[in-house]
Amino acid sequence: MENIKLLVLGDGGVGKSCLLISYTTNAFPSEYIPTVFDNYCANVTVDGKPYCLALWDTAGQEDYDRLRPLSYPGTDIFLLCYSIESRCSFENVEAKWILEIEHHCPNVPILLVACKSDLRSSSRREEMVSTEEGQELAKRLGMSFCETSSLTQTGLKECFDTAIKRASECSNSKKKAKSFGIGIGGFGFSKKKKPVPLPPVMPPAGKAPWVEIMTSTFSSDWTKALQNPVHSDVTFILEGNHKLDAHRLVLCAASKFFQKVFRFSQSEQQRNQLSEIEDESFSTQDLTSGAVEGIATVIEENDVKTHTTIQLCDGIRPKSFVRVLQFLYTGLPNLPEDVTGIEDEIHDVSRLAKMFGLGQLDTICDNCLKEMDFLNPSIGTFLNDETGKRMKDMFLNNPEYADVIFHIEGTKIYANKVVLGARCEVMSAMFGGSFVESQSTVSEVQLKEVTSECFMALMEYLYSDHAPIEDGDSVGIMVLADEYGQKRLVNLCELYITKEVDRSVTKQIEKSEIDVIGLLLTSQLYNAEQLSNWCLHFISSNYIAFEKRKEFSLLTGSNIEHVEEHRWPPLSYLEEVKQYEKEMEKMGEKCSVM
């Protein structure tokens, strides 16, 4: 079996690691971790011939320009990569990488590889490096060209097959030349040379810790709000004089039927000539005369705040209506896994679903009866997402329905106690206990040392389970999330920040604008443990770059102990490099890594 060493080169973040991982695992990696140095091994067959393929990954950052060439000895072919979305990485092929390869390995073949071809379908297509530009550059430099997508695996096999065949051809040519004595001192004569010392093998840097995202509590939060309906403003009266309290905000966000019942008025942006007819509210006459199916009468009281009492028609079983409310609040009725013996109850819930225009609830019931209930959790997740989005669009920062006003930086942010209390324990205590804020109908709260942008992001998260982290101050949102006990939002910020660090250091770490040591210290102050661990690993794994930064002196105590203990490359390796350099100098040759 022929052994081939294939090494990938190119700017940071162009897709080198994804290229190798996608090729060896047939799966695109969901997380991007900047490569320091890594290698893989795969047994492959090309044109019926087996090969043992050693795949070497490298870091493209300038911080590793000195150490990277130590991976080059023994390379049979270089895959020189650029990203079609980064013209800078394309220009660096000729400006940097070709020069580096020709200096260290002048006779090794090169395959030019365009990465991320799937991005051509994006709206920024005109800004991308075209296929023709890649082909023209490869032709001018005298090398083969491939275009690939690690995400869709387009061109991946063809790329590596081409590389393997090209490497094998060149390897055989060298062996043939050697057998005739060509290049070794003339025909039939050979001059014995002192063997060139091999560079030390670089130890692996280790993988960055994963950032785990806490499971959403959106559904369970609203389950608790239904079970213990604080701030309720709706009471349903059912047969047997059973009463169930609820919240008009949730009912309107989850159901068009109840929007009509409560005569919810859409914003000007949402209103159009079709919706004015389709979504026309029920009249008072309809609601009080029994003209609306399922509703006997509706009574509104306006003492301190509006409270609506809805008398449901006889024939609506309390137990079935509880399932309807559970569906509206959480996306799923709380039905048992085994529905044997309660088919009649499910049929009754299905009847109410049709009565109140809840098509997805009808589908869920049908799935249960057909033993296809495994489909229901995904329906519930989808509905929670939709309800949260509508909740945000309809009620967040809407003065007409607000019972809380936050004053921040001279800006008013309008909110609802039911959402704040259900989704945030800190807010629940503020508006549900003996705090002054809980006493009035419309509470006004002055907040200092917080920006309106970050607070609005927190509000969006409480209403919709999503936050505009990408468009805002991710660190500020993380700090605020910790202050208000939103652990999952902290996790989302942690993950986004690590990605932002990855993106910002694709060219260089030492002079990058992003302050990773500052992020480490902030994460430790505000209980972002995963970000703290990630930053420690990142600093340790890029020690030679960080020790040159002015913030390095801020690392003290356990932080500096961890970084020194886990520094990469380790001191033992750097000592081996120095010894290698001395041996090369003794031989009268300039070290390839000086």
From TrEMBL:
Transmembrane stretches, start-end: none
Domain of life (superkingdom): Eukaryota
Major place of residence: membrane
Molecular function per GO: GTP binding; GTPase activity
A GO term from the CC aspect: plasma membrane
Keyword Lipoprotein: yes
Membrane topology designation: Lipid-anchor
Keywords for this protein: Cell membrane, GTP-binding, Lipoprotein, Membrane, Methylation, Nucleotide-binding, Prenylation
Pfam families: BTB (PF00651), Ras (PF00071)
Domain BTB, first and last residues per copy: 232-337, 402-471
PANTHER family given in the database record: RHO FAMILY GTPASE
Similarity-based family: Belongs to the small GTPase superfamily. Rho family.
Protein name: BTB domain-containing protein
